């Protein structure tokens, strides 16, 4: 029954719906003859805060029964798809999964969207009005030039290191970034030196002056602190690697002034050590390790490195897993979470939800690293 559905989603609706959407819903429900003039007036006149108005309208409608509740659910979907999905009202979209991959709870699986849900103008306006000082200011879509860098190593000189399924990851990530409004600078099958040159060249792009943020996504085999180039060979003293630290160096305040005070999001799909998995292909070469000997310095005190956040596919010394057909579990979960929740969650909450997908999968746990964001970063997809 629809009234029971509204009862179960009541708290989420009260916490999430914005005041402009409440006003639109009142007009809609009046037009649908769910509420009369006196009832719609009482919602705003007798309740001063947004939460009180939200509580009043949902309680008033659900008490009218299933038909009235069905009409309200349809109007919520029309007016704010983000809240609609957050309430768990969307039709079930089963994620493609393999028997041993990280599982979704029934509630989470019910809410997964296969396409990126856009933010609403009302949500953006409301949250910027309420929390504007706590949010990185978004540039207007008509004048900005967002860029993202995507590097994916699939084929290596050592044929046994072929990353089957990595093309699927590349396809998914590129689609997500473009849907989020980023022009994608894409490279495939680079050496460690070529990766460094690509990141450095990317940091010099003039478009960053007209951008409000940047994404860097790198996918390859890896070891602790580094990503393998396509010429990597186990036992070779001249290891073909790219140090992850170089991403932060090339994009920091000193070397990329165009991105000062703008969020820089780093996604790394690569192993950081550890043993092979069981059935799944592991993005790690057995027996490899790397001690970079990093030392602490005053970079944060001097604000040379600020406004970064990175999400790595696994914790130190462990492996990350890849399905040869569907791609890595890490990218699969990023697609699910961003498609469904980027319309109303900031980046750190999105990362937390990605990590939550792995809670019942003890073989792998993504981890946030070098987070120096001083504000919340909302992507506002579609706006």
UniProtKB/TrEMBL annotation:
It holds the Pfam family CARD. The lineage of its organism: Eukaryota, Metazoa, Chordata, Craniata, Vertebrata. Keywords: Hydrolase, Protease, Thiol protease, Zymogen. InterPro entries: CARD, Caspase-like_dom_sf, Caspase_cys_AS, Caspase_his_AS, DEATH-like_dom_sf, Pept_C14, Pept_C14_caspase, Pept_C14_p10. Residues 92-115 are annotated as: Disordered. GO terms for molecular function: cysteine-type endopeptidase activity. Residues 95-105 have a biased composition (Polar residues). Residues 1-81 form the CARD domain. This is Caspase a. It comes from Salmo trutta (Brown trout). SUPFAM superfamilies: Caspase-like, DEATH domain. Residues 144-275 form the Caspase family p20 domain. PROSITE patterns: CARD, CASPASE_CYS, CASPASE_HIS, CASPASE_P10, CASPASE_P20. It comes from the Eukaryota. The keyword Protease applies. Residues 298-381 form the Caspase family p10 domain. One of its GO terms (biological process) is regulation of apoptotic process. The active site is at 221, 271. GO terms for cellular component: AIM2 inflammasome complex; IPAF inflammasome complex; NLRP3 inflammasome complex. Coiled coil: none annotated. Belongs to the peptidase C14A family.
């Amino acid at each position: 029954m629809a009234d029971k559905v509204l009862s179960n989603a009541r708290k989420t609706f009260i916490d999430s719906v914005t005041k402009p959407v409440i006003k639109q819903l009142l007009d809609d429900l009046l037009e649908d003859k769910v509420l009369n003039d006196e009832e719609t007036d009482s919602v705003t006149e007798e309740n001063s805060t947004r939460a009180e108005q939200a509580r009043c309208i949902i309680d008033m409608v659900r008490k009218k029964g299933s038909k009235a509740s069905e009409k309200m659910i349809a109007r919520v979907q029309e007016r704010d798809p983000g809240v609609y999905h957050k309430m768990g009202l969307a039709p079930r979209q089963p994620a493609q999964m393999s028997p041993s991959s990280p599982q979704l709870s029934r509630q989470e699986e019910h809410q997964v969207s296969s396409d990126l849900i856009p933010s609403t103008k009302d949500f953006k306006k409301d949250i910027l009005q309420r929390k504007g000082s706590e949010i990185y200011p978004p540039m207007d879509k008509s004048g900005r030039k967002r860029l993202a860098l995507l590097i994916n190593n699939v084929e290596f000189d050592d044929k046994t290191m072929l990353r089957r399924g990595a093309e699927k990851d590349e396809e998914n990530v590129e689609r997500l970034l473009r849907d989020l409004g980023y022009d994608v600078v894409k490279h495939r099958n680079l050496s460690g030196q070529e990766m460094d040159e690509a990141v450095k060249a990317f940091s010099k792009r003039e478009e960053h002056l007209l951008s409000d943020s940047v994404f860097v996504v790198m996918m390859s085999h890896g070891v602790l602190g580094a990503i393998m180039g396509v010429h990597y060979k186990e036992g070779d003293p001249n290891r073909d690697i790219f140090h992850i630290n170089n991403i932060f160096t090339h994009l920091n305040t000193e070397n990329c002034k165009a991105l000062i005070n703008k969020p820089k999001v780093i996604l790394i799909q690569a192993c950081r050590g550890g043993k092979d998995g069981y059935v799944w292909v592991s993005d790690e070469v057995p027996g490899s390790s790397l001690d970079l000997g990093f030392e602490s310095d005053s970079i944060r005190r001097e604000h040379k490195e600020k406004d970064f956040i990175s999400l790595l596919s696994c914790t130190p010394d462990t492996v990350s897993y890849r399905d040869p057909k569907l791609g890595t579990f890490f990218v699969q979960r990023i697609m699910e979470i961003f498609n469904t929740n980027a319309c109303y969650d900031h980046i750190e909450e999105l990362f937390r939800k990605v990590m939550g997908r792995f809670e019942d999968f003890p073989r792998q746990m993504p981890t946030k690293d070098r987070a120096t964001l001083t504000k919340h970063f909302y992507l506002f997809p579609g706006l």
